Amino acid sequence: MTPASRIARSGTLAVVFGRPWKLATVRGVPVFVDLSWVWIAALVTYSLWGRLGSLHPHVGSLAALGFAALGSLLFFG
Question: What band does 12 get if pLDDT is binned at 50, 70 and 90?
């Protein structure tokens, strides 16, 4: 029996990168996030932080990080 058929017959979610984390349940539908999405969000935040710092040097580093985190949250949320 192949792993794919075992997963299909067991009715469980196929996990590629590891075990997903359950964030919430919205109207009975569970919402999960995988570790890969966390890494992508961190890379987007870091990229925005660097770009904001170079385009607007008068903005402080902590403020640029806050704006980058807000932009990443709006993008992924």
Answer: low
